[in-house]
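Example 3.2
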Amino acid sequence: MAARRPSLPRRVLERLRFRSHSGRLIRRHRALRRLDFERASVLHPAILVSASYGVLLLGQSHLAAAWESSLRFWLPRLGLAAETATRSRELLGYTLYEIPFPLLDGSLPDRVALLGTAGACGGLMLFSYLLLRGRALPAAYLVWAGCAIVLSSCLALWLVPERFPYTIASHVANGLEFALLLMLVMPLLLTFSYYVFDHSLARKALGTALLLGGIAVIAPYQYLAHAALIESFSLLIMPLLYVMFGLLLDIAVFVALYAWVISWEP
C-alpha cells in the first residue's frame, strides 16, 4: 500500500520551519553540526598556524617599533613628558620579543584621597543597589566589582603603602607583554575553533589577520589611556585598570572579533 502523502498545509508548515521572518534559510547551528573532516580540515590548520607564527616571528620587531612610535607620538600630546625604554625576553641567547614602555612612576595617594575614594565607592555601591534593578542588574554587578577592587586598593595603600611595588612603567610593560602573548597563543586557539570549519582558506587567513591586527592596534592605545589616567589620579586606580580593563579587555576584543569572523557565510 502506497504511503499517504502529507497534506498541503502540512508541507507548507514543514518548509516554513526552516525559514526566518525575512524568508532566509535557517541553517543548523554550528554547535549541532557534525564536522566531516576532509583534507582541508588538516591542511588549512597546518598552513595557517605555520604562516601565523612565521609572520609573528618575522614581524615582532616591526610590531615593537610601531608600538614604541605610538608611545613616543602620544605621550607628549597627553601631557606625559617621558622617554621610552624596552624590555626584552631571551631564550638560549636569542631575543624572543621586546616590549616598549614609558619611563613613568606615578604617585601614591595621601590618606585624605583614600578616605574620599572609599566614601565615593560606598556611595556608588549604595546607588547601584537601590536603583540598578531588572535589566540594569548586570551593570550593578560591574559597579560592585569595580568598587570592591578600589576599596581593596584603598585598604592596602592605607596599611602598607611602601609595599606597593608597581609603577606606570611596569604596568604598561606587563600589559603590552600580555597582549603580545595573547597574540602568540591565538593561532593555537583558532586551530580547533575556526580553522576546521568550512570556510575558504583565504577567508580564514583574512579572519586570522583581523584577530591578530585588532589586538596589535588596540593594545598601545589601551595602555596609553591607562598611563594618562594613572598619572592624573594616582596609582590607586591601577588595580582596577589591570583587572577590568587590561588583559580582560583584550580577551573581550578577541571574542567579539572571533564571533564576527566565525559567523561569515561559508
